[in-house]
Amino acid sequence: MLLDLVQNTVDGLAVGAAYGLLALGFTLIFGVMRRLNIAFGPSIMIGIFAGAWLHAEWSVGMVPVFLAVLAGAVITAAYVERISFAAIRGDAALASMASSFAIWMQLEEAVARVFPGRTYGFPTFDGMPMIEIGPVLLRPEYLVMLVTAAALVAALQWGLAHTRFGLELRTLADRPEAARVSGVNVARVAFLTFLLAAAIGGIAGFLIAAADGQITPKIGLWATIKGLIAMVIGGLGSLRGALIGGLVLGVVEANAQWFLGAAGREMTTYALLFLALVLLPAGLAGRTEAGARAEAERRL
Amino acid sequence: MDFYFGLLQIFGVHTLLGLSAYVVLLTGQVSMAQAGFYAIGAYTAGAGTAMFGIHILPAIIVAGLVTAVIACIVGFPALRVKGLMLVVATLAFGEMVRLFFFNLTWQVDRGGELVGPNGAEGFRSIRYFPEHGWEVWHVTAFIWAVVIVVMVALWWVDRTRAGAVLRAVGHDETAAQSIGLNLTAVKVGAMTAGGFIAGLGGGIYAHTVTHIEHGVFGVLLATFAIAYPILGGLGSVFGTVIAVLFIQGFLIEGLRFLGDWRSLLFGALIVLAMNLRPTGLLGEHAPRWFRRRKTGSEPLELKEAN
């Protein structure tokens, strides 16, 4: 019983790290644009299918597949940004949401047309041994997920704090007006942020697909929903929060799956999510609007 | 001919679904729970006629009322959050409803046949219309009679103080609060009304298709529900109807001759429409006779949630 709990928690942490990466992509887009990108998951799906196709046609190794996933996700995201975000004026957030919804349907249909059928294989990390820590087993894919997520978050934190682009991004996220008057090229920073988010999402998608070994077009909607949930659990606009939200979601899901079964897992997750949102609207690591304003005034 | 009546029926139930999201959107709240409310209405009304043998009209009214009560109960906690948090909270609620019906098995014996929701199998044999000799045009007329009653009611509400209150909250919450409006009451009221309309729509939907199952009421349907009023604009109830005709009539049925390529064009045309008219087809600058007198309509936006 207790061992099950520990084992589930370890597995959940690994899957949660991938959720955290999806949430990180969402947080970046939402922080800079204040708009919801429903087509986030579907653009990752395009990347994953590009990788699977490359593997099936040419039976290439993991590295080219990874690059294909990344390129597919980033190029699709550029398309989404140009059409649903850059082309629609900034104050019409609902129009962007409806427009990215339409793109989601478009991308899903495109994949269903090019890849008829339900599931496709995806290359896995073969030949890596199971890692034993005492009685607890850790799948090697999961170790890769954990390490990648930690490294990416650390790199992102560093980049945001120490590069010029990071400074511009933070300014745009905190005070868009201030960014504009101080000469930040808002359109360019927004576009690059969108691509960065897609790249992070692509990495998460690659890791998830490689751990599962198979993919369906449903992964698009799935990634959008998991990322969205993890982001709001952690609190909007906080990178650390996004990662924590993903880990919490992963651990809860893994344990609920084990103790309550698949239907129980979904039900528990959604019920906890609803309660968490209602009881802790600022998220686990988030801050309220009033809190943010107070902090800004203190700094002045 | 039956085909065109069938289309009109689809337009009718989707208009009700869109109007239920429209009411909530007027107060500036994006609710993804409408598909869940629609499901509650569908199962309740289906149970009413198929399991207990009551008339269709009381069945859908009961379905609307049950859904309204649930919407009110959910609205109180859910509407404490707004913007993106509300989107996700209502999404979670909608999925909980769907999973509830996925697991619900409750059948009764009716004339030697078991009827009722049967878990993943769904709820079969909601055959009120054929059993009572309704012809397809009777059904269509019935659906549109309900749609027109709902539309007239909403159009009338928009001209009363209640309509002004809803729009005031949607336009600027702080200003609305400062003139003494109770935000919670207004938002929960809108959610309750939206729940009633979604319940009616779901109840009718169950009878037109005769077989309902949980998969229909997922995130996709919830997104469609919210997309209708966004695309149609919040200028008036006609916007939602036009959006339903545009999406269901033109994009889905009208382009059927394109075969599988339809959905690609479908996306492109919605994107084009949102680019040309970011506040919806009947949002700003709508033809005068569609607009609300004096005020016109203001673009509503997804509020900053951070």
From TrEMBL, chain A:
Q: Name one GO molecular function term.
A: transmembrane transporter activity
A GO CC annotation recorded here is: plasma membrane
Q: Name one GO biological process term.
A: amino acid transport
Q: Which domain of life is it from?
A: Bacteria
The entry's keywords: Amino-acid transport, Cell membrane, Membrane, Transmembrane, Transmembrane helix, Transport
Q: Where in the cell is it found?
A: Cell membrane
Q: What is this protein called?
A: Branched-chain amino acid transport system permease protein
Where do transmembrane segments lie in this chain? 12-31, 38-56, 62-80, 142-160, 189-211, 223-249, 269-286
Per the UniProt entry, the signal peptide is none
Q: Which InterPro entries match?
A: ABC_transp_permease (IPR001851), BCAA_transport_permease (IPR052157)
Describe its membrane topology.
Answer: Multi-pass membrane protein
Q: Which family does it belong to?
A: Belongs to the binding-protein-dependent transport system permease family. LivHM subfamily.
From TrEMBL, chain B:
GO MF entries: branched-chain amino acid transmembrane transporter activity
Q: Which organism is it from?
A: Ruegeria marina
Segments crossing the lipid bilayer: 6-28, 35-54, 60-79, 86-106, 136-157, 188-206
Q: Which domain of life is it from?
A: Bacteria
Annotated InterPro entries: ABC_transp_permease, LivM-like
Q: How does it sit in the membrane?
A: Multi-pass membrane protein
Q: What is this protein called?
A: Branched-chain amino acid transport system permease protein
GO CC terms: plasma membrane
**Record localization:** Cell membrane
Give the matching Pfam families.
BPD_transp_2
- The reply on keyword Membrane is yes
UniProt keyword GTP-binding present: no
Broad class of where this protein is predominantly found: membrane
Q: Which UniProt keywords apply?
A: Cell membrane, Membrane, Transmembrane, Transmembrane helix
